[in-house]
Structures are given as C-alpha cells and as structure tokens.
Design goal:
Helix content: 25-40%
Distance between the termini: 57 Å
Number of strands: 22
Number of helices: 15
Strand content: 15-25%
CATH class of the largest domain: Alpha Beta
Shape: globular
CATH topology of the largest domain: Aldehyde Dehydrogenase, Chain A, domain 1
C-alpha cells in the first residue's frame, strides 16, 4: 500500500509516521496512507515567498495564462487514469468523476483564455480613469498588482480536482504562488494531479507546493501579504477565522462553507410545464451526483401546498429508477458516501431531521452490507419554519420539501431563514412573481439561478459552478467570493489608487485598447 507524499521546498517528502488510511468507500478496501504532519512550515512559506513569488512576478499576465493552458492540457491528457482514481477513492461514478475533472480543466482553460487578453503587463486596470482637478491634467486611476506573499488553499474532499484547480487558476494568473492542501478522504486524486503538475515542470519552482497533511502549522506562518482560501465546514472555517495569527497579521481569508440551498417552484407551474420537469431533473442530479455531497446541492425544496403531492410523486418516481452501487460498475448511477465519517454523519443527520418531517423515500438505513451506501432521502416538513430545517445541513443525498402558500414574499422569507447560501434556484414563468422573489432573497444568496420554459432545453443546472460568475455567499455560506472572471484574482492582488499627471498615468497604467 502506497504512502502519499508532499511536494514542498522543491522535493517530494513523506512526512511523519503518523498517517490516516484512505479507503475505497464502495468496498472499504484500504488504498493508501496519508501523513498527518512532519513538514517544516516555516521553510514551506519561505520557499513560496522567495522562489515562487520572484518567478511569477517576472512573468506577464499573458505568460501566466499560458501556464494555465498547459496545466489544463496535462490534466486532460491523464483523464482516464484520473477517472479510475476518482471512482476508487472518491466513490464517484464515471459521470461524477468527469464532472469534477472537466470542471477543473475547463476552469483552467477559461482563465487561460481570459489572461491572454490582459496584455504584456503584470497589473490590472480597475475601471476608467478619473479627472480629479479643474482640468484633466490631475488624473486618478485604480490598478491591481500582485501581493508579495503566497496563497494557502485548503480544499474539501468532494471535488479534489475542481476545487484545487479553480483556486490555483486565479492565484497563478494573479502572480501568487500556491500551497494547496487536499481534503484527506479523497486525497489520492489530488495527489496524482500534483504529481502530473510536478512531472511536467509547467510551473516555476516555488509557484506550486502540495501539502498532504495538516495545514495547522502553516497557518501560523502567514503574514499580511498572504491569503487563505478555504472550502469546508463552517465550524472549521470559523476556527481558521478566529486564529490569532490570521487576525493579528490581517491575513486575507476567503471562506466557502455550509449552505442550505433552496429550490422554489412558482405557483404558476404545473406538471405540464417544461420548467416543472426541469426542476425535477435538477433535483435528481443534486440528490444523486456525488451522493449529494456538493456545496451547491439543494437541501430545501419549496413547493406550493396545492402542488406538493404531484411534485413529490414525480420526484420520487425519478429517484426510484436510479441504480445505486459500486461506481466501478458502469450501470450504477449513484455511488457511496465518501468516507465512514461522512456515512455516520449523514445517517445521524437524517435521523435528526426526521423529528421535524415525514420521510417520503430513503432513510438512514444502509442499503448494502459493505461500503457507505444510502438511498436518496426525501422528507416533507411538518413545520416549514422549524429551526433545524433551516440550520442543520445534512451533507449527503438528503432534501426536505417545504409546502408554502405560493407567495413570493413567503418563499423569500423561508429561503432567508437559511442564514446565507451559495445558490438558490427559482422555477417560474411569471416575471413579476420572479422579480419579487429575487429581490426578496438576493441579499442572502451568492447566486440566484432562474429556470423557466424559455431556457429549459439549454440552461446548465444550478449546481454547475461557472468561472464567469461568482461562487460564494454571505452569512453561514462563509461570506466569501471566488471566481467571477477577473473578480477571482482580487483576493491575491492589491488595489491602489494612482494620482498624478494624466499623461503619465493614462499612458502607463490606463486600460489597454482592445482590438475590434
């Protein structure tokens, strides 16, 4: 059985003898050992700042964009091998694995194409120039430049490829070296991708380090020019946010945490509407893809009281045909939970939520003798305002139907009880109703996805995190923001206001003229 190593300070290192075992969650077979500690945090930080920072700062935005394109190609070339690893260690079906890997390469490719248009410079212009005096001679311009530190990326277990790549793409394009730490349960896939990155020698030395183990000591080495991007539980996010070094050194921190995402069926739809069927299909994806272990998955389903029975019947019938089992068998469309810990947590979560609702399908009972398999679980709330429904996320194939009056105001009120979300979705053909719902809930959501009959045949599901728009959310969702085109670079750059002679500032630091 292999022991995973870390690529730090220019070499592969094995770490301490204290390890955690990685399993195949479908068979419970032991696959690898992951070290918990044993790396010199101060040396890792110094290597990133001294070697990686200097190398990336010497490159233009266009040159960094070329690195991202090469990374995308290298990962895609190993796609079949990586799919097999994701199936074995992540409990992914082939479709789940492709979703993760293609999201990774697609995001890298998008930022590569974005960077190609930014010119042979190492700064970004922010907005138009501004006249500051009585004449244009006294001029102002905001610019973004790379910060003089490194980025620590702490990723979740559910998307070991995509999560790593989306953070990496923004940081490298911004000119900031990266130390990336994978979620341990599925670290085998991230480790192999790291091997590919190092083998291909695409990134300059120090620009990329891979830490397979605890990041606790490295967090203590962060300074005011460094940044942390974290994806995971709100509890861990709060712990990082409260660390004295993070606060005392004013370290930039982006947190993407728990999210009780909602899907709302408008009262104007019935089972004949295309948008009605679209909502059912998207909910099936959310309850089965990655076994429901997605930060964007819907946990609360708002359905008008008059439509609840019909809607539940349609959704349950679609879930009933999903074949669950070992994802190595291609006929299976849903795999297991990612780990024994996840399996235990989700089962306990289902039992806790069942106190506030009726289980319509699924439940907490295992459906196999080996492996961490649960059936998709759908509940109907008895009290649609019960605190637990809007407070406790069960991170698995679990969602609760909330029968509501059909009022746009009530729908927004119920969504807002979640305390802040990454993405909520609205299904309606009624424009005034949709407008009212959007404006009523926008302050608590990072993204609102709107489905209607007009887009039912071409719109991507709300669970797809697109690099063109922001990903993140307020409140319990972490109060962070990633991606969103060039907005994703801002965590790693400093905005500075320049003031002076227009002839100098406009010529040297103004916006590039784009070709028609």
């Amino acid at each position: 059985m292999k022991t995973l190593s870390s690529y730090v300070c220019g070499t592969w290192q094995k770490g301490s003898d204290e390890t955690q075992t990685l399993f195949n969650p479908a068979t419970e077979e032991e696959l690898a050992l992951c070290p918990r500690a044993g790396f010199e945090a101060a040396s890792i930080a110094e290597h990133a700042r001294e070697r990686g920072q200097a190398a990336l700062r010497a490159m233009s935005l266009v040159e960094r964009a070329s690195l991202l394109k090469q990374l995308s190609v290298a990962i895609h070339e190993a796609r079949e091998e990586l799919i097999d690893i994701a199936v074995a260690n992540g409990g992914n079906t082939r479709g789940d694995a492709k979703f993760d890997l293609d999201g990774a390469t697609g995001t890298l490719s998008y930022y590569a194409s974005l960077g190609k248009k930014l010119g042979d410079r190492d700064f970004l212009t922010d907005g138009e120039g501004i006249q500051l005096g009585r004449t244009p001679r006294f001029w102002g311009q905001h610019i973004w430049t790379p910060r003089q530190g490194f980025a620590l990326h702490i990723n979740a277990f559910n998307f070991p490829a995509w999560g790593m790549a989306e953070k990496l793409a923004c940081a490298i394009l911004a000119g900031i070296p990266v130390v990336t730490k994978p979620g341990t349960a599925s670290a085998l896939l991230a480790w192999r991708i790291a091997e590919i990155i190092v083998e291909k020698s695409i990134l300059p030395e120090g620009a990329f380090q891979f830490l397979c183990g605890s990041a606790r000591e490295l967090l203590r080495e962060l300074g005011p020019q460094d940044a942390v991007a974290f994806t995971g539980s709100s509890m861990t996010g709060a712990s990082i946010r409260g660390q004295s070094e993070i606060q005392g050194n004013h370290v930039r921190l982006n947190v993407e945490a728990d999210s009780l995402n909602a899907a709302i069926l408008g009262p104007d739809l019935d089972s004949d509407a295309d948008a009605f069927g679209l909502m059912v299909r998207n909910l099936v994806i959310d309850l089965t893809q990655k076994a429901g272990q997605k930060c964007t998955a819907v946990r609360r389903i708002l359905v008008p009281e008059a439509l609840v029975d019909d809607f539940a019947e349609f959704l349950i019938s679609e879930l009933a045909v999903i074949k669950i089992g070992n994802p190595a068998e291609k006929t299976n469309r849903m795999g297991p939970l990612a780990s024994a810990a996840q399996f235990k947590d989700v089962r306990q979560g289902i039992d806790a939520l069942a106190e506030f609702g009726e289980i319509l399908c699924g439940g907490s009972d295992p459906i196999a003798d080996r492996g961490y398999f649960l059936a998709p679980t759908l509940m109907r709330a008895r009290d649609i305002r019960a605190e637990a429904i809007h407070r406790d996320e069960v991170f698995g194939p679990v969602a609760t139907i909330l029968p509501y009056s059909g009022s746009a105001a009530e729908a927004a009120e119920l969504v807002n009880l979640g305390g802040g979300g990454l993405v909520s979705s609205i299904y309606s053909n009624d424009r005034p109703w949709t407008e009212k719902a959007v404006l009523g809930m926008a302050a608590t959501q990072g993204r609102i996805w709107i489905g209607s009959d007009k887009v039912a045949g071409e719109i991507l599901p709300p669970g797809a995190v697109l690099p063109q728009t922001v990903h993140g959310g307020p409140g319990r969702a972490g109060a962070g923001e990633e991606l969103g085109g060039l907005r994703g670079l801002e965590l790693y750059m400093q905005r500075t206001a320049l003031q002076g002679f227009q002839g100098l500032i406009a010529r040297s630091f103004g916006a590039l003229e784009q070709d028609d």
